[in-house]
Specification:
With 512 residues, the chain is of the alpha/beta class. The protein contains 17 helices and 10 strands.
Length: 512
């Protein structure tokens, strides 16, 4: 009746304004419901495709290690999708809670550490002393290299005999709700897979030797769930990177499984990072199914700093949109080094002397701050670069078109402005070597980079590797970092997610 009375007191203009506001709110609600349903439909469709790949007979075309890796990735993808669907459904009051399957008890022979959770006070609000009437016990599987143990969480139940009040400590939050792994075990699985290049079927054998062979399907489910939980951190790391004025970029091919064809095709892991001179040390990987320049444009959308990269054409559109290009002196030098190493070219040998002189100055500049570095380069590098430029022009006039020496000369001449941009800016590096070193771990484990066709496996790997490699860049033990983050993440406010990023993280001892 109150609402009706309010409407009755409104004049015509107020009624029209109220009606317009109500129509807008209804439209917004419908749009939100529609977008949510579209997302649910997309995830459901993707899950159906993955299940068909998993159980279809044609997947038997994959043999040996490829089949193992395919199975692992599909399991992880399915678990990640299930977690995303559950998160969407929780927002819907009509959603039916998923019934949890009964889990077999953990082995009795494994050592157990009892962790008790009791109320801070055993005095009831009415003044009576609470009486302990029982307890709830849950067990979590923990792991340190080579040794399993069990955390036995005991939550005492306390009751007031006068007012029948029941008091019990809350359940500690975990990344995998109601799951058996501790944050330490999950960190071990992720570090072994994404840093030590151990596929899950190998980890299954390693765990078996430690006393409990965890099925690779279970490990894959854990990886999938952790991937969803860690994605906001990877997204925040990307935002921190794009707030910098200078960014490195490079890309490397990796094999991606095509389940329906029983073979692999070439995908790419794009790598972006801060310079060695930046106080923020971070690297962010972006997995894509091709080397098309659109992937770099999508990742760097809205950014307009200086990009340190090679001469790959995929970056060219960025320079037309306001991004400044800084070339890689090492790439230019490499063209002449190949000629000298393979053909003992005297022209290449002379070019290498020029590049060597520039790099001698850079070895000194590396120890200076940005202003001092710029002054040193202007004083000593600029004259050498100007002389080199004149020499390149002279040699190009002598070289025959199409020859290897002509191509090496053209590479430097056509990109001269970008190659020497570092001389006028102390914040810029001379080359792209810093980010190439961030790609090296991927090259070492390339035989394990075989992903499912949905891209989820590659994107999940990119997120985990971004955090792990950035932790290493900041001098952290990746296992200690991930273990602490996975312990804190379930209760950490989303608005303060940046506190858990590798460059801002402090060891638990330092926090304590």
């Amino acid at each position: 009746m109150h609402a009706v009375d309010q409407l009755a007191r409104m004049n015509a203009d107020e009624l029209r304004e109220f009606a317009a506001r109500l129509i807008t709110e209804i439209a917004d609600t419908r749009r939100e419901v529609s977008l949510k349903q579209i997302k649910i439909d997309q995830l459901t469709h993707e899950m159906a495709i993955l299940k068909r790949w998993k159980f279809a007979a044609r997947s038997e075309q994959l043999q040996g290690e490829q089949r193992h890796l395919f199975d692992e990735t599909i399991e992880a993808d399915l678990e990640a999708i299930e977690l995303e669907l559950t998160a969407l459904q929780r927002a819907d009051e009509k959603a039916i809670p998923k019934q949890q399957p009964r889990r077999a008890p953990l082995p009795a022979h494994l050592p157990r550490t009892e962790i008790r959770h009791e109320p801070e006070s055993t005095v009831c609000a009415c003044g009576c002393a609470l009486k302990r009437i029982g307890e709830d016990v849950s067990e979590k599987l923990d792991y340190v290299p080579g040794v399993f143990s069990i955390e036995r969480h005991v939550r005492g139940k306390w009751a007031c005999t006068r007012c029948q009040t029941l008091t019990q400590a809350s359940v500690p939050a975990h990344v995998i709700d109601k799951g058996i792994p501790t944050a330490g075990l999950l960190a071990q699985v992720l570090v072994a897979k994404y840093l030590d290049h151990q596929p899950l079927y190998r980890q299954e054998g390693i765990f078996g030797r430690a006393g409990l062979a965890i099925p690779r399907s279970t490990l894959a489910q854990w990886v999938g769930m952790c991937g969803v939980q860690l994605q906001p951190l990877a997204d925040a790391l990307r935002q921190a990177l794009l707030a910098r004025g200078v960014v490195h970029a490079d890309e490397t091919p990796v094999a991606m499984l095509s389940p329906g064809k029983g073979k692999t095709h070439r995908a790419y892991l794009w790598t972006y990072g801060t310079t060695e001179y930046d106080p923020l040390q971070a690297v962010v990987y972006d997995f894509a199914d091709s080397r098309a320049g659109e992937h770099a444009r999508r990742f760097l959308e809205g950014w307009s700093g200086t990009l340190v990269c090679d001469d790959y054409a995929g970056y060219k559109a960025l320079f037309a949109d306001g991004v400044t290009e800084a070339g890689c002196l090492a790439h230019a030098r490499r063209k002449f080094h190949e000629l000298w190493a393979n053909h003992k070219s005297p022209v290449a040998e002379e070019a290498l002397r020029f590049f060597g002189a520039l790099y001698e100055i850079e070895s000194i500049a590396r120890e200076l701050n940005a202003d001092e570095r710029q002054r040193l380069r202007q004083l000593r590098s600029r004259p050498i670069a100007d002389t080199l430029h004149k020499w390149l022009i002279l040699q190009r006039q002598k070289a025959t078109d199409g020859t290897a020496i002509a191509k090496a000369l053209d590479y430097s001449l056509k990109r001269w402005e970008a190659l020497t941009r570092f001389i006028g800016n102390g914040a810029l590096p001379a080359d792209n070597n810093h980010i190439e070193n961030r790609i090296r771990p991927i090259a070492l484990g390339r035989s394990n980079w075989l992903f499912a066709g949905s891209l989820r496996g590659g994107q999940r790997a990119a997120a985990a590797m971004s955090l792990i490699q950035s932790a290493k860049l900041n001098g952290h033990d990746p296992y200690a970092y991930l273990k602490d983050v996975l312990e804190r993440l379930p209760m950490h406010p989303a608005s303060r997610i940046e506190e858990l990023l590798p460059h801002r993280w402090a060891t638990p001892a330092a926090n304590g």
